[in-house]
């Protein structure tokens, strides 16, 4: 099976693993000449805060989730790394439930792979707090690669 489309879930907490995410994406996308869709999902509060921090006016036609995602620091860093490696990519933004939006994007694009980042957690931590990455892995319509942040 060839990989044509990869959805890379990008979140605010991914600052800690930008390099690892970029390395993983390049390793998977480059040989296949795949298109990578950087998908940054905001919850409502984070979207409003980020939009304001970036200087977008509330209710402005230019303050779309795509535009805010394109200017978000984590997304810009990943985009720069992928461009430097010659990997074709685009940026999408969404507001809503993180796991559901990533899965919906993957389904809508007919993605061949989803890549998500996360941190190591105890079984109790997963049970009590849930895990967006775990929810994506269980619900995605294609294989999911989990990229863990480096051990400190």
From TrEMBL:
Gene3D superfamilies attached to this UniProt entry: HUPs
Highest taxon listed in the record's lineage: Archaea
CDD domains, alphabetized: USP-like (cd00293)
One Pfam family this sequence matches: Usp
Domain UspA: 5-148
Secretion signal, residue range per the UniProt entry: none
Family of the protein in this entry: Belongs to the universal stress protein A family.
Protein name as annotated: UspA domain protein
């Amino acid at each position: 099976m060839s990989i044509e489309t990869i959805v890379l879930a990008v979140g605010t907490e991914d600052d800690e693993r930008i390099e690892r995410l970029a390395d993983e994406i390049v390793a998977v996308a480059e040989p296949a000449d795949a298109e990578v869709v950087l998908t940054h999902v905001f919850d409502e509060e984070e979207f409003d805060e980020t939009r304001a921090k970036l200087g977008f006016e509330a209710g402005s036609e230019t303050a779309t989730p795509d535009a805010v995602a394109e200017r978000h620091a984590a997304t810009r860093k990943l985009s720069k790394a992928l461009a430097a490696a010659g990997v074709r990519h685009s940026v999408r933004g969404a507001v809503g439930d993180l796991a559901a939006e990533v899965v919906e994007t993957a389904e809508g694009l007919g993605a061949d792979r989803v890549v998500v980042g996360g941190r190591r957690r105890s079984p109790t931590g997963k049970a009590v707090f849930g895990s967006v990455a775990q929810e994506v892995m269980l619900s995605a319509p294609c294989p999911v690669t989990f990229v863990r942040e480096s051990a400190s």
